[in-house]
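To: structure subgroup
Subject: Chain for Friday's discussion

All,

I'm putting the inputs and outputs inline so they're searchable in the archive.
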Amino acid sequence: MKFNVIKDEGNELVIEFETHDLTIPDLVAAQLLENGDVTFAGVAKDHPEVGKPKLVLKTGKKKAKDLFEKALEEVDENLSSMRAGLGKK
């Protein structure tokens, strides 16, 4: 899935996803919220029929971009684990 980095200022990251579906951005935000270094993670969308979802991430001391990358890896691992439960790789 494609996305654009709108803002990257150390402990704040705003990413706009190239989709109208909120599923993946919400999944990533939920994973981010499990990290104790994240102070805020949420998804905003201007209007359901127009606009693209934006993930807003704020952190304490760690770089937001690093925590975003870590969350993507964790989501991938979780999905791989689910596929393995179905007998698929």
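Points worth raising on Friday:
The domain at 3-84 is CATH 3.30.1360.10 (Gyrase A; domain 2).
The mean pLDDT is 93.

D.
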